[in-house]
Amino acid sequence: MGETINEKVRDFLKVHRKGGQPCPRCGATIAEIEPNGRITSYCRTCQPGGLFK
Fold it and tell me: To 5 degrees, how large is the angle CA 17–CA 21–CA 25?
C-alpha cells in the first residue's frame, strides 16, 4: 500500500526537469520555460493551453 501512495504523490514530478526528453504519457518532447527564473517543464500535447490563462 505504501508504494502506491508514494507513487501517486509524486505523479506530478514525471516531467520535472526533463526538458527535451519524451513525455512518459504521449511521447512528445517535454518543453521548458523559465518565467521569473523558475523552470517549468510540461508537455505541449498533454497540457495544451492549460499552462497560462
Answer: 95
Establish how many alpha carbons lie within 13 A of residue 21's alpha carbon, considering only the half-sphere containing its beta carbon: 10
Residue 32, beta-bridge partner list: 41
Q: Give the C-alpha separation, 18 to 39, whole Å.
A: 10
The pTM of the whole model exceeds 0.70: no
In total, how many domains does the chain have? 1
Name which of 5, 13, 15, 10 is nearest 42 in CA terms.
Answer: 15
pLDDT of residue 4: 58
| 53 located within any domain | no
CA distance 26 to 11: 15
